[in-house]
Amino acid sequence: MLYRFRYSIACGVTDLRRAVDGLAIIVKQEFNMDPFGNYLFLFFNRARNRLKGLSWDRNGFVLYYKRLDGAGARFKWPRDPTDVRNITVRQPKNFVIRFS
After folding, report:
1. Which of 12, 33, 64, 100 yields a CA-CA distance of 20 to 30 A from 75?
2. Which residue, 5, 12, 26, is CA-closest to 91?
3. Which superkingdom is the protein from (predicted)?
4. pTM metric for this prediction
């Protein structure tokens, strides 16, 4: 299912207390992108040990969540908060496999 998306990561830090609507607002207002498009948007917290993914699925949003456990477990993540990057299909898979 995740292979049908184009992936975009929101670089920097995101307050992951935000739910679907809050993350969709970030996508629309801060990155000038369409949250209803064929994208999976990835957001990370300050400690880089949690991520949320947001995508649109025909009739509603889907929210993905991953939390790393263990001492020093962190995702590698770009820190420039104004940057949005497109990544390949293999890269999100590497996030999940590397830290599972």
Report:
1. 33
2. 5
3. Bacteria
4. 0.74
Residue 23 near residue 43 (C-beta atoms within 8 A) = yes
Decide if pLDDT at 2 tops 60.
Answer: no
- What are the structure tokens assigned to 83, written together? 């940057």
User: Tokens 């890269």 — which residue?
Assistant: 91
Compute φ and ψ for 21, nearest 5 degrees: -60, -40
Q: Compute the distance between CA of residue 61 and CA of residue 65 in angstroms, rounded to an integer.
A: 13
- For 43-100, what is each residue's pLDDT tens digit? 989 888 999 999 998 899 999 999 988 887 887 766 665 555 565 555 544 544 443 3
Q: Which residue has the tokens 């607002």?
A: 25
